[in-house]
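Notebook p. 47: complex prediction with calcium ion.
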Amino acid sequence: MSFTAPITLPGLTLDLNWYKRSVFYEVMIRSFVDSNGDGTGDLAGLISKLDYLQWLGVDALWLPPFYRSPLRDGGYDVSDFRAVLPEFGTIDEFKELVTKAHERNMRIVMDYPLNHTSDQHEWFQQSRSDPDGPYGDYYVWSDTDDKYKDIRIIFVDTEESNWTFDPVRRQFFFHRFFSHQPDLNFENPAVREEVFNIVRFWLDLGVDGLRLDAIPYLFESEEGNGEGEPPTHDFIKELRAMVDRDYPGRILVAEANQWPREVAAFFGTEEEPECHMAFDFPVMPRIFYSLRSQQADELVRILSETTDIPSDAGWGVFLRNHDELTLEMVSEEYRQAMYGWYAYDPRMRSNIGIRRRLAPLLDNSRAELELAHAILFSLPGSPFLYYGDEIGMGDNIWLNDRDASRTPMQWTPDRNAGFSTADPGKLYLPVVQSLVYNYSQINVESQLAQSRSLLHWIRNVIHVRKAHPVFGMGDMTVLQTNHESVLAFVRSYEGSGTHFGDQPEDVLCVFSFAHNPVAVTIDMSEYAGSALYDLFGGGVFPTVNEDGTLTLTLATQSFYWLHIGEGGYRR
Ligand code: GLC
Ligand code: CA
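Predicted complex, structure tokens below:
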């Protein structure tokens, strides 16, 4: 893409790299604000809180599915890809959301579960009842349940096989997820065409990007394991080419829960790109591992593996989302350690992961919450926050499956936490009333009123990050240290010269996972003699020694972000 200068569209600055500079916020419409008192959050409710999100510093929203759906998998079981679930609102309200977000220079990325549908979808109903009809070949049907033996089961808590017998068609259908979510047959050109048309439908409405849900699983084969098989990559390349041609500036985000090399494959190559962004599944669990093991080495190892990606590709880094904290991408030994630290009650587990929110995982430790966010906001890639984590919301492990961390947003200490005026019994899920995370204590209103609250702290970090384009745009070099608990890296950026304030900058980021104060010596030979200034307050730090070493002391579970360079640093 050749034009890099910012172009202004009505209400939105067109910057082809916007996703690299953005702070994303995942918000489930059902969980945020109920505008009409029926007990369920809705589009109008979300619109009413755009000012709050803008104040926080959010640049883009990721909306999990809000299509028509029987909601047996939180909306990831879609029964009509062109309709909004009536309890969430209407297409017109969605358009209004897009317009109002764009007025605030905020983007909308919506989820698109393209791999499967609900069994209530018209296509499936037709497919099962009329095998020779136009939809007969839309799904993966078989007379036996023994094809694709090497394909693993994902929802191990609920599913015993990836095949389920359909008594209507009297054949088995294939499903990677729940047995009420049949996989679409991507071998069928008609299915691929439907997908292109659905993508066009939403991009035509002004959506800025799509999260491609469960993207590795589109094609399956006898030889492969059904994850990122060659035809799946070929299909994404075609989709990307269409988006680049007809909708430049819109993005595709890959949800691929895989090892670094496999995830990076979803970026494609410079010549044949696939997704603009991919979630960094390998890094996420290692942040949690380091916090408890007090060891930085696993994180260092994985960070060195994930750096080599095409120039316009960006990672989506996250601590939590609407799913369980997945432990699929760690070794058995690490998994057992993490279950021990973070899921000591079996109720906290779900499939191969942990169904808890961030604050309870970190035992509500302010130091750990700050440290985890400091890492999130300075790693290469764009941070994705999960709604409610900015106030340290709790969870409810007595609820079913991943509903544990999908409870209503806590706005005020009033009825239903200010989420809804409905009879409390009517809410889609109860608000959190636990001892520590009770909505009377943990809510936006009360944190707004306390200048040292987590909410104000997170807003401040977001704004510091945004003042330094190096965090979104720069490279990363991991540094050697003499302390096993310390992670240190330099982010550096040459500056593009095309964006206002897009200065070249080098920033040293140092994190201590130790549960006690430490002194550490860092190898900074490239920066011998450089001055260091704190990014938050501008405070002057010791200069890097002439021999290239730097010795710092860090308080328990703390961090520094330091501007490197001569000539002082003004905020
Ligand atoms: C993705 C979603 C998850 C959903 C699954 C099946 O992994 O994040 O919530 O259950 O796809 O669509
Ligand atoms: Ca409602």
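Notes: The first strand starts at residue 7 and ends at 9. The chain has a mean pLDDT of 95.
Next step: compare against the earlier run before touching the bench.
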